[in-house]
From TrEMBL:
Domain SnoaL-like, chain residue ranges per copy: 10-138
Xref: Pfam families: SnoaL_3 (PF13474)
Protein's name in the database: Nuclear transport factor 2 family protein
InterPro entries for this protein: NTF2-like_dom_sf, SnoaL-like
Top-level taxon: Bacteria
Amino acid sequence: MPSGTDREQVDALNTAFYEAMERGDLDALSELWLAGDNPGVSCVHPGWQVLSGRGEVLRSYALIMANTEYIQFFLTDVVVSVAGDTALVTCTENILSGGPAEESGALGPLVGQLVVATNVFRRTTEGWRLWSHHGSPVLAETNDEQDDETPA
């Protein structure tokens, strides 16, 4: 049995989820998700449709990992809540990713993105497992929008 409080265990699992993505480790990422045909396993990547079922969700991560040269997550605003056998983590994913490699083999341009995420975990006999991930892009205000709000 993992040590620490439920909140600490869920927080550690949430961190492990993002670290597996950064390493491109699909096996480690797969171990974090609910196994078998658990109902409700789902994922919404920013701008994507809802993906349902473990197989479809894991295929999406395999696709992302195969097409991402570099990715790093800086998590902020992390809040962990536990209610019985369900836990909810909300956070802001400050994402830095590398574009396609240049002809010289060097990493392409780095791109930053903000995503707000909700990760839902369920307690199982093997410990906490990821049940659902939902990420939505944060739309940045432009200077024009800020100017429009300035009183005349």
